[in-house]
Amino acid sequence: MNKLTTSFSAPFPLFRPIGDEPAEILLELDGKPLAARATDTVASLLLRHIAPETYRHSAVAGEPRAPLCLMGVCFECLIEIDGQKNQQGCLVRVRDGMRVRRQIREGGCDEQA
Amino acid sequence: MSRPDLLIIGGGAAGLSAAATARALGLSVELIDERAGLGGNYYAGAGDINGSTVGLVAGYRRGAELIGSASGSRLRSGVSAWRIEPDGTTRFIDASGAVSSIAPKRLLIATGAMERPVLIGGATLPGVMYAGAAQLMLKTARSVPAGRSVLVGSGPLLLLLAKQLISFGAAPSALVETTPASGNPATLRDLLSALNAPSLIREGIGLYAALRKSGVAWHRAATEVSILGRQRAERVAFTDGRGERRIIDADLVLLHDGVVPNDHVTRQLGCDEEWNKGQSCFNPLIDQWGETSRPGIFAAGDCTGIWGAQAAELSGRIAVLAIAEQLGVIDTGERDRRAEQPLRQRARQKAFRPFLESRFPPSLSRAGMAVADTVICRCENVTAGEIRTAVAEGATEPNQVKAFTRCGMGFCQGRSCSMALAEIIDAETGRGVAAIGRQEIRAPLKPIPLGSIASAPAGPEALS
Ligand code: FES
């Protein structure tokens, strides 16, 4: 599988916010600023902001994967947080200044531990 | 290293009520939970409650109350237990990556329920999630599906989620129920015992009425479900109740086939377990107080069998009474006196379950009959066909199949595949899942960055 394509049937995130809670936490996603709500986890934030097929690529499966359970069970939400690879994005709450990096390399594979 | 009277793993209904009860009895208590916030599944988000969100989801208030009454204890979220010793000593890693340990006098495991893994064609596509995940998005992140969502499977939670999404202006585009037309015939006895929990029955009837009124396309008794798409989920295919093949568009597919105990911790400890036929899952063997086959190690709530949040709350209280008695804080008479009412209430809560179990048997995912290219082990990408080949070549034990195929060897350590693996071996050999069992679970329960372990002092005594 090569670089992420843009020919998705639905190139939008899976979720949208409700309510008027402000996005006051500022973090970095792949080097670019992104604002989060204080109640977000890394996974919930990304599910509102990126297309799910760009969440991560599994090297073993050779295909994109995205969060499945959001309760710490499936390990499909692995992502690099503050330099630490393979963190469960659904368990980690957002913090100001956090550096989040998707585990997608040129060639479309993540780096496994 | 701290040495509290009680360490509780899991901050849901059972763990929080246990912490509150233990504090009231004067025990020193620590509670750790791996999630970003307390409340478990049922009370998820209750810890983040604020003025504008009160009333967003029923149950917030009770959850916030529980958290409040437990707050005299040291409650920590974002902390994952990764190794538990038979004496209860627990090593964990916190959000900053620091490793340390707690050696409690008694350990209570309250790790709750997880979605019954659904292993059907296309389930690994991005855009496929569990219904429970969408509920957590609603409760903890105040977010709803952005596009066309299709709810697929069986169980009260699926219907509840449909109703919740409708009320938040994010109605699903379809509900595809795989519940068999009449469920399994509920026995008269199940129905009669269900009448002990009339409020649950009222809730259920209200749910059906609300859904019918909503006009959401509702397909019933669907079979042969799979998800289609290239890079992400695009369509759901199924055979409807009249035998017609249907394909409907979907941006988000939300699967649900009931819930099962999240029993990884008791498994790592090697606690004896049993096959629960009614609930189609394994659960740890416990006595009425919640003590497992390992003395001094207790378990309470849905990680011991699916009985619901109200029963979990009661079980947390009941377990702590036995723990306090073992520690000499109350005598046996006092324990029994205090336990009398919660035991009676719990029996009433449990009475409703056989009705639900026969009404909503697992029906979405049948691993034993899965087509060959269905992914069973998501982490190592092992298919049903590869597992059958290994079985045919003589690997008839779960640990052997694991060694042959890497099924269950990935990050999740078999959390998603271990039941399915037993079901496939059963389908091939006819030995029965109860006899086949599941792969062994070893510490660490989750990958621990090598640096964290290396930088931690060697023995648990030297930690924290
Ligand atoms: S989404 Fe399943 S572990 Fe994070």
From TrEMBL, chain A:
Keywords: Oxidoreductase. Transmembrane segments: none annotated. It holds the Pfam family Fer2_4. It comes from the Bacteria. One of its GO terms (molecular function) is oxidoreductase activity. The keyword Oxidoreductase applies. The keyword Oxidoreductase applies. This is 2Fe-2S iron-sulfur cluster protein. It comes from Hoeflea marina.
TrEMBL record, chain B:
Residues 375-426 form the BFD-like [2Fe-2S]-binding domain. This is NADPH-dependent 2,4-dienoyl-CoA reductase/sulfur reductase-like enzyme. It comes from Hoeflea marina. It comes from the Bacteria. Residues 5-312 form the FAD/NAD(P)-binding domain. GO terms for molecular function: oxidoreductase activity. The keyword Oxidoreductase applies. Pfam families: Fer2_BFD (PF04324), Pyr_redox_2 (PF07992). Keywords: Oxidoreductase.
